[in-house]
Amino acid sequence: MMKITVKLFASFRIGRFDREIREYPQATTVGDVVRDLQIPEAKVGILLLNFVHVDLQRQLADGDALSIFPLVGGG
Q1: Is a pLDDT exceeding 90 seen at residue 32?
Q2: Which of 25, 21, 19 is CA-nearest to residue 2?
C-alpha cells in the first residue's frame, strides 16, 4: 500500500475533508483517486501532483501529494 496526501479545494471540501493521508494499492492512478472520492471527472478543473499539472491517467507513487481543484465558474 502507498500513502498519498490528498488535498481538496473549494467546493470539493464540502462533506469531505481539506487534507488527508489515504492509502492506495500500487498502480493507482489520479483518476482512481478521483473516482474513489466520488468526484465527477467532468467537474475536475486542475490536478496537481507534487505541484506539477497532471492528467487522470498519471500513476501515483508512495509519498505523493495530490491536489484536486474544481472548475471555476462552470469551466
Answers
A1: yes
A2: 25
